[in-house]
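Lecture 7 notes: from sequence to structure.

We start with a single chain of 387 residues. Read the sequence below before looking at the structure.
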Amino acid sequence: MKRKLLYVIGLLMLIAGFGCSSSKSEISGVIAGGEGQSLMLERLNVNQTSVIDSIQLGSDGSFSLKIDIEEPELYLLKNSEGAIVNLLVSPGDKIFIETSHDSFGFAYRVEGSEESEGIRTLVEQLHRTRNELDSLQAVAGSIEDPESPQMDLIRNAYGQVFIKQNRFTIKYLVENMGSLSSVYALYQKYDAENLILGRERDLQYFKAVADSLEITHPNSSLTLSLRADIEQREARFKETAHVNTLMEMAGEETGLLDLSIPDHEGKVISLSSFTGKVVLVAFWASGHSNSIEAMLQLKSTYNTYHDRGFEVYAISLDNNKIEWMSAIDFNEFNWINVSELSFPNSTAALLYNVNSLPATFLINREGDIVAKNLLGRNLNTWLDNII
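Now the structure, written as tokens:
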């Protein structure tokens, strides 16, 4: 019985040993001309890296690195000069790389990983694209007349290179949608700042890849990171579009930060319609006690100066029309009352950089903001001087 128990324990240990070894992967190779130099291994998680290991090349340029992983992951082999070989390593892979010190990062041979081979084709195509762009830039720099027909040809050729690269990347994604190497393809860049697929409309490819990987690799850290990054990119594109809208609203000719907001009857009232008057733009909220106190204090100023060309454009940061209207009626605020009724997402507050309430902006007859956060005696003094 004892022997049988020991046999079972030994068998279990042997099975466990096989299970552990199956997750070990090896990256080895030869880098001609790199003898004695250092090589670093980093893990790539969409757009962040972490150092895993480092090694010194042998006297013949050879190296061998072993890693214990539980899922396919992207890795970077980085030499002492910062050049990179990109790999996608799966548990149990035995990857062999052959290259030279001079061509490290853009011309190499890889065995033992189909996904890493796919990444190699992406790298080589982008290297060709960069060389073509550099050549065209050099030719353009030699042309003295920027309006010459030759320059038009260069511009057209330059655009065609981008189109060719874009199509190559998209074709790769379509053919390898369920492969984790497609994550690498999504994040390839022409330079340090510009993604090949960096336009807003290219988000469709990010989403398509994420949808596919959630089926083929649902628990992969790369899949989860990709989905999170998509959400961040969508938010940034929306914010950029929002800021562009605000810049258009700002008005390039007069400098007026114009607003067009509905009143309680739904009639849109533009701030620019009061050009020629002195206007106090006042941000407040019906449920904010300090705002109510400030608006009550403003009533006497309004009654004193209104007939002399003074107007109040009061913007309520509310989202409940009944509460907003009740505060106006109860406190008898008889100036211009408007509200987007979209708090906390207020375009007007963002445009005027309102971070606290109450907030006021005094605009002169020419449409320029001349003072901020004035009330009471200070506001009256300003009005005496500019009306």
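The domain at 23-112 is CATH 2.60.40.180 (Immunoglobulin-like). Keep this in mind for problem set 3.
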